[in-house]
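Q: Please design a sequence for this.
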């Protein structure tokens, strides 16, 4: 923390009163009240007045006035930076004179004669002193400063007793500067006079507090013209004030000065537009005529007004400049006013573009540092004309890459050269990019620097020795190729890696395979069944190497050189189908050569690897009866030997059901069913279906229902689908009726004769 306050008295002040010694002066009431609180605290140089500002190097009195008491009390001093809130000093102790009752005249005032501030000082920073004694407190605020603040209140030129507003060239004048001290203490200040920014004179002035004093400078205007800036700097410990005054210094004849620009800079080959303003520092220039000359050479055109230019007036020129050559010089502007010519000079620089770069054969940018007159440059630089030394490093190496200087783009072969620059120029340092390449094998080593893009033949062949070989596995290192020729595209440091392998030959059914297995690793090869055109070869074992079965394959294994000969079993693809569209069952698989499949009838319909079991299938009035089978499109015997791919299917005879419902006198009597082979004809006649007649009755055929197009009693049917017919019969009762009539006649006759006989008997009885 920055220490702002230096209290030499503090170590003594915070002790008991009797030990204050000659450091503090104890006096009665000094007549000042408290600024804040009830304890009067303040800073003063002599008790005559309180001070609110403390200056660097100044010693003040620190005054505290407290009430007396007969018992000790706590006492503390705290100083706080009001801008930051930081406590810069805090001390505490016990006093034996302290805050009793408020009684007249019972005050003690302590005066400590050494209070000051030290560096670093922050101008205008405010602090608060807080003093606490018992239950009472008081506060005082002050500001730290380097010196009493002063300010310039006036700058005036006098010629004799008159105030001068316009100054004559080479004239002598008196410059009066008024200074006011706004501080609380008499102060000495330094006054420095600057003319157009250059130190002209200085003197010291002493000013009493809250008053003004005047400093006088004798000024002779030699070599000055135009508008001149007179600046006065007022300083104590620090600069307190700066004031400027502008005066016109006139000439006795038309004389132009340059207002702007102070310099002009152009680039060779690039047009430049520049506005130039000239100020007349003398009498009126009539009908001005302007001519311009450029050095180094340039095409210059000027446009301007032809009207008269009075004192203080401006002549504005619009210049079009096209630099022809590089260099440093000036523009000479001559203004002729009838019989007097005024000359103004403008610094002029014409730059030429020098493009420096380094490039390699790939078009890349090498990390070469190019130097121009000993200073590193990169890319384009605009320079004034002249002779320059350009230097490029002969070789640049970054790790395993290097760039070797070949020549400059204009044919110069020396890496250090001189360039005479008069116009725009582009020069390139041409480098060749190379990489360091290192390849090592057990047989030979290839190493060296190679141009980027070059091809290097690197050894990477395998070496065989009987059933063993050394297989090139690759390269270990960085930037290594896969194999074969190596195109240099970067650094490479590589060593060949070889793997020792043993050979395993596997002889299959119609080809031979060769495997190389890394030493220490086990060979394992699964041999699966091979299928082609309905024929499958199933591996059954192997000779000259170990093998294990695994379902429909075998697994060959070896841990060293071996020649495995695989044994095979031939199998054929067999598909056995029911052959029945309504029951499209099938079995499909592989059967060993020589296997037998059979056709059987009875049981249920079931194709299997054993053959085809067939049985009659009946569904919804249609039935299929087995009629043998075919294999590969030809009718086959009941047993077939598998010696080729087979596709076998059952043969079937389709039969259709014809149902005849018999009705007698519109009452259902019975249902008769007939099965007719597909394509066959069924003949039906009423006699085949005649129901049994009753006593004394006859059954007669009435006709067919459902047999469309049939006529007569006998019908012929060729059914394609299940068919249902109705045979209608009725009962003929004529014979019964005849018998009943005969009986009725006989009964009637019997009754007649009976009655007649009985009548005759009655008459006889009557008589």
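A: Design:
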């Amino acid at each position: 923390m920055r220490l702002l306050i230096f209290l030499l008295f503090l170590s003594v002040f915070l002790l008991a009163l009797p030990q204050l010694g000659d450091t503090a002066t104890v006096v009665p009431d000094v007549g000042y009240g408290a600024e804040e609180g009830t304890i009067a605290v303040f800073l003063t140089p002599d008790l005559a007045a309180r001070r609110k500002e403390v200056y660097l190097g100044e010693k003040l009195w620190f005054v505290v006035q407290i009430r007396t008491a007969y018992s000790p009390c706590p006492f503390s001093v705290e100083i706080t930076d009001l801008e930051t809130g930081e406590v810069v000093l805090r001390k505490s102790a016990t006093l034996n004179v302290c805050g009793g009752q408020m009684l007249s005249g019972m005050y003690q005032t302590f005066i400590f004669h050494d209070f000051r501030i030290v560096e670093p000082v922050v101008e205008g920073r405010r602090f608060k002193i807080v003093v606490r004694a018992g239950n009472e407190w008081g506060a005082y605020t002050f500001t730290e400063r380097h010196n009493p603040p002063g300010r310039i209140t006036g700058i005036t030129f006098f010629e004799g007793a008159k105030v001068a507003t316009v100054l004559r060239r080479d004239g002598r004048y008196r410059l009066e500067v008024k200074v006011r001290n706004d501080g609380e203490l008499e102060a000495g200040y330094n006054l420095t006079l600057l003319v157009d920014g250059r130190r002209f004179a200085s003197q010291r002035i002493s000013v009493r507090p809250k008053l003004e004093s005047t400093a006088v400078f004798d000024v002779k205007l030699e070599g000055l013209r135009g508008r001149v800036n007179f600046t006065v700097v007022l300083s104590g410990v620090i600069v307190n004030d700066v004031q400027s005054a502008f005066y016109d210094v006139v000439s006795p004849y038309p004389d132009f000065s340059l207002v702007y620009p102070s310099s002009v800079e152009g680039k060779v080959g690039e047009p430049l537009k520049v506005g130039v303003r000239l100020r007349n520092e003398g009498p009126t220039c009539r009908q001005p005529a302007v001519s311009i000359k450029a050095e180094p050479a340039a095409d210059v055109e000027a446009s301007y007004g032809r009207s008269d230019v009075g004192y203080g007036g401006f002549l504005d020129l619009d210049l079009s400049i096209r630099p022809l050559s590089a260099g440093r010089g000036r523009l000479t502007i001559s203004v002729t006013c009838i019989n007097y010519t005024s000359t103004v000079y403008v610094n002029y620089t014409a730059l030429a573009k020098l493009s420096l770069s380094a490039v390699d054969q790939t078009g890349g940018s090498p990390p070469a540092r190019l130097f121009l007159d000993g200073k590193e440059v990169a890319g384009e630089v605009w320079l004034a004309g002249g002779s320059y030394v350009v230097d490029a490093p002969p070789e640049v190496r970054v790790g395993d890459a290097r760039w070797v200087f070949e020549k400059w783009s204009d044919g110069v072969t020396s890496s250090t050269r001189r360039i005479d620059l008069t116009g725009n120029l582009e020069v390139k340092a041409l480098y060749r990019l190379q990489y360091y390449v290192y390849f090592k094998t057990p047989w030979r080593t290839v190493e060296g620097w190679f141009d980027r893009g070059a091809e290097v033949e690197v050894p990477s062949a395998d070496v065989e020795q009987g059933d063993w070989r050394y297989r090139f596995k690759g390269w270990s290192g960085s930037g290594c190729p896969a194999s074969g020729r190596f195109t240099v595209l970067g650094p490479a440091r590589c060593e060949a890696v070889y793997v020792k392998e043993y050979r395993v030959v596997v002889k299959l059914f119609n080809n031979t395979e060769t495997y190389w297995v890394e030493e220490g690793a086990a060979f394992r090869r699964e041999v699966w069944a091979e299928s082609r055109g309905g024929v499958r070869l199933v591996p059954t074992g192997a000779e000259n190497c170990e093998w294990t079965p695994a379902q429909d394959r075998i697994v060959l294994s070896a841990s060293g050189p071996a020649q495995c000969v695989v044994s095979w079993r031939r199998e054929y693809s067999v598909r056995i189908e029911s052959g029945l569209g309504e029951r499209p069952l099938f079995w499909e698989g592989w059967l060993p050569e020589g296997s037998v499949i059979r056709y059987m009838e009875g049981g249920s319909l079931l194709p299997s690897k054993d053959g085809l079991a067939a049985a009659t299938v009946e569904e919804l009035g249609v039935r299929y009866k087995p009629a043998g089978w075919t294999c590969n499109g030809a009718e086959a015997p009941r047993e077939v030997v598998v010696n080729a791919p087979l596709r076998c299917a059952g043969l079937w005879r389709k039969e259709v059901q014809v149902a005849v419902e018999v009705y007698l006198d519109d009452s259902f009597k019975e249902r008769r069913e007939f099965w007719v082979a597909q394509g066959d004809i069924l003949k039906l006649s009423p006699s085949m279906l005649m129901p049994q007649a009753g006593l004394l009755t006859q059954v007669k055929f009435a006709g067919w229902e459902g047999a469309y197009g049939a006529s007569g009693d006998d019908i012929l049917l060729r059914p394609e689908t299940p068919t249902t017919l109705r045979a209608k019969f009725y009962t003929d009762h004529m014979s019964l009726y005849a018998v009943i009539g005969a009986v009725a006649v006989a009964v009637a006759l019997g009754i007649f004769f009976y009655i007649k006989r009985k009548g005759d008997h009655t008459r006889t009885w009557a008589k």
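Q: Thanks. Anything notable?
A: Residues 734-766 form the longest helix (33 residues). The two ends are 189 Å apart (CA to CA).
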